[in-house]
Predict the structure.
Amino acid sequence: MRQILHIDINSFFASCEQAVDETIRGKPVAVVSSIEGRNCILLAVSYEAKDYGIKRTMSLKQAQSLCQNLILRVANHNMYQHFSNKFIKILCEYVPIVESTSIDEAYLDMTGTERLYGDIKEFAKKMQKMIYDRLLLPSSIGISDNKSLAKMASDYKKPMGITEFYSANIKKQVWPLSVDTLLGVGNKTLSNLQKLGIYTIGDLAIFDKTQLKIYLGENSSEMLHKLANGIDDSKVITYDKDSVKSIGKEITFEEDVTSRDIIKRELLLMSENIATRLRKLDKRAKTVTLKIKYNNFTVITRSHTLEDVFNTTNIIYKTAVELYIKQCINTMPIRLVGVQVSNIEKKDIKQMSLFTDKEDEKNEKFEKSIDIIREKYGYNIIKRRI
Ligand SMILES: [Mg+2]
């Protein structure tokens, strides 16, 4: 049997703020995207703020009406990244197989380490204490024989919980839980499932698979049915960020395209996708490459290397469009267009001070806030105007 741990830092941004400022420890704190007006979104709230009934999904006004003494902090993503790096480093000191899946979460594969570390639950307690002692960050830990159950278990009791969900006990422990606690069940899937009379994970686990396929489509019905039955073979993968050499995206059109506006729109969407992925890896690149395949199957690629490293949509898009405009003197119909960034720096982002351009710095901060909002509320919550 595999032994997998999922560790999640609780209320990560708010906890980081409390870790660095003892005057706000034990107090209601909200981390906001910006302090001014309409664009202010709650990114995280401390457990003390949650005790007032404040939720991340509320507006600042609503939150302040529940708690007049709510302490506000503007998100400091560099600081959070710094904590995240330290968190992962602690894990790597003890376990060789660590998969960091987001800024405040990681899976550990502890299979076969009983002799080294003893009982897994005791080890989890030790890690939780270690993370708290060294970083002052509360965490919750899930233990299981697979990744999805481990993640659900870490979600089960917060803060500072340790929960074991094993696939052998799934009927007793997991089946009674509401179906939206299952990984991959978002609001839309939830309402589809409820229409079928599926309210608990157990309802889903025993539901007729063919029927489910009709409502959810082949891929997600298959996946959700497996997860509800505690089946998940995915491995904990130690991901070496430094091995990434390039990041790209391309699109093949269903019909050949001649409209510059359509090409530009696609370039923008691809640039945004690439910039998000770069930031997720905490990397910056220096080179943008544009690829175009014409309807006569000629392929051209054009690259431009910038003076400064970048990781924002703006710069990637601007450079890609410049390359495109230079190339497209002719109006030959285009079948495929792609963007790639390369020359990716080895080191992780450590400081903002390497910016030479204030505007770039502002853009990066702005786009990082968007990443976080999207991670929480779904990609489509913010749409670019094109
Ligand atoms: Mg968390």
Q: What stands out?
A: The mean pLDDT is 88. The chain is about 40% helix and 20% strand. The chain has three domains: 1-165, 171-228, 242-381.
